[in-house]
Amino acid sequence: MCRRRRHAATDLYHRDSTCRLRHTATALHCRRRHHHTATDLRHQDSMLCRRCLHHTATDLHHRASMCHRRRHRTVNGPPPPGQYVPSALPRDHGPPPPHQQAPPPPPPPEPVAGPGELMGLCREGRVKDAVELLDKGACADPAAFYELAAACSNPKLLEELRKVHDFFLRSPFRGDLRVNNKLLKMYAKCAAMPHARRTFDNMPDRDMDSWHIVIDGYSVNGLGDEALRLFELMKECMSPTSHTYLLVLNACANSEAIEEALLYFDAMHRDHGIEPGVEHYVGIIEVLGKSGHLNEALEFIEKLPFEPNAMVWESLLNLARMNGDIDLEDRAEELLVSLDPSKSNHKKLPTPPPKRRLGINMLDGRNKLVEYRLPPKIEKKVVNEQRYVPDTRYVLHDIDQEAKEQALLYHSERLAIAYGLISTPARTPLRIIKNLRICGDCHNAIKIMSRIVGRELIVRDNKRFHHFKDGKCSCGDYW
């Protein structure tokens, strides 16, 4: 009987397409729980869908299987007119109650500061404040990173430079060539060549300036052999320029590589067609003079293809002064003054006498910066075990011999090193920043200190870096 009524309702639905009869046929199928038949009926409108879903939801046995099918037909299919269908959906297919709804995602945090504010702090010298803003989420662009790196040229800001580099590597601009080159230059100025080389090796792109910065950094820090090895790698991918060979000759001078310097000098024109300039000839003179071959340097000057100018004689004058050759120094000075009267012996007879600058040393360690000035008087201590003998030639005051020896003992760089040795962990390098040129007696004393304590002592004067290690200096005793 039930089957007969179901077929009759279906025939009634197909014979008459009026809205009322269609509603009646659908209701009969729903009350008899013939849900499949009711759902398969075509030409649904909003009221039919609502009635069908309402009766289906009352049947617990068919809820799980039928609701998904009807919801798919109603929601994913062409939407029927009206707003009845969503209101008739079961609770488990509608939105969750308010207390079960997930909270909306928080808005993205606004940047603490922008690139302009970071660049302003760098121009004011407040590098540490700028780095703190970066740590708090400040936004930086390539220009801001460039200014941040440029502000860390002082060795005492090496830690800040490393932090800026870390933030730069985490930014989307880590491939910016200009910023990477600036980081290389700042690492070289801070005597942190391992960091510079690691940065150079990880750079996605390199240009000629990148190679020049690292080669010059090795040369200035007394690592001439490393500079020459890097130059050999450079020749495999790029053609050297005139400036490249000038940096290579400086590296040869710092490593006393006379034969290599002469070979590179000949290869300039032979292999690359580069005509040597005056600065390249002066570079060869520096190589010979820093190695102690002053006679060979003088012979090289006499064979120059041009008339020696003031630059040539000034270089020979400095080399003769370093090696203690007074006769050659006087001769070079006489020739220099004849070409350039402004280079007269103003250092020997200053008129009026210049104001004497106060020697200042700064020790960087444990994130602290300690400054040392000349004390009034300290006790005399001599390291006899290491054959240290004070060299009183560097004392220009008219005092007796004993007073000269005592005057050498309270130079500020020695006090800075002494404090650093007792206040920093063992076997860690010490960095000393000096605003004057280091004297020869202190240079010898610091070499002995490095051998006694077994630590690397890095001293930066107003000319170059001195890396003291195992009783030797990277400058080769020529600075």
From TrEMBL:
Gene name in the database record: PCMP-H66_1
Protein name: Pentatricopeptide repeat-containing protein
Keywords, in A-Z order: Repeat, Transit peptide
Ranges for domain DYW: 388-479
Stretches forming PPR repeats: 207-237
Domain of life: Eukaryota
Compositional bias segments (type: Basic residues): 65-74
GO process terms (BP): RNA modification
Residue ranges of the region described as Disordered: 65-118
Entries under NCBIfam families matching the protein: PPR (TIGR00756)
Matching Pfam families: DYW_deaminase, PPR
